[in-house]
Amino acid sequence: MNSGLVSTVLRASDQYQLTARLALDDRRVQFIGEYREFLEADYWYGPSLDESGLDTLAVLGDTFYGDPNGGMGLLNPYAGLSVRWTADGNLKTVQIEEFMPPPNDASDWVFARYLHAIRDTSRKEFVHCDGAVKAYRANTYPRTQHDFRHRGKGDRYRKVFRVDGDFPVGVWAELACAWFRGNRLIEEYFEQSPS
Fold first, then answer.
1. 5 vs 178: CA distance, rounded Å
2. How far apart are CA 152 and CA 150, in angstroms?
3. Hey, how many other C-beta atoms are within 10 angstroms of the C-beta on 146?
């Protein structure tokens, strides 16, 4: 259970009067001694996050943070992280998804965490954020970063949390980091923001 995510969702819901929903899987509970930290060496391309551009509708595009070893190292289970900003009217949408290493021949499915959030640029607030797990059939999962850009919605989709209401960028960043717990690439995306 991702207690960091649960407490972040509940704290944001209480502080900003948000409507929050959580899906919990009691089969995934683990002992604290089973938790492992990971250290990653990675690279990235695309625009970094700049808080001053969050409400500028022209500041859009794709950013990709990736591991030079493709996530195949013992301490690095994530091949990359894709961040895509788009706009529709005064609403900016961000979609963040993990890029997993190519599956082995015995795998039937590839599972990746996905986050979707909407920012109302006229009000300078985030108004929605949700996290889900996407499942892709292993035999059709993208093998390269180029193919990953055209991955689609996945074969299966399970929403894990959702918050709606007005909340600041700090809460959105906290939710994203809690959702992608264990994937240091999300932390690097937020750390690349200019001071």
1. 5
2. 6
3. 8
Half-sphere CA count of 46, side-chain side, radius 13 A: 19
Query: In this prediction, what percent of the chain has a pLDDT beyond 90?
Result: 46
| pLDDT tens, position by position, 50-67 | 788 899 998 898 888 876
Q: Which residues of 24-50 are buried (b: 16+ CB within 10 A; e: fewer)?
A: eeeeeeeeeeeeeeeebebebeeebbe
- Interval 104-158: pLDDT, tens: 888 899 999 999 999 999 999 999 999 999 999 998 888 777 777 778 788 999 9
Strands (E), 24-108: 43-45, 61-66, 80-88, 91-99
Per-residue pLDDT band at 76 (split at 50, 70, 90): low
- Residue range 1-13: mean pLDDT, rounded: 85
d(CA 110, CA 134): 8
What letter represents residue 89's amino acid?
G
129: closest CA among 185, 170, 88?
170
Query: Domain segments of the chain: what residues?
Result: 3-191
Greatest extent of the chain over all pairs of C-alpha atoms, in Å? 49
Q: State the Cα angle at 20 between 51 and 166, rounded to 5°.
A: 40
Query: Distance (Å, rounded) from C-alpha 49 to C-alpha 151?
Result: 23
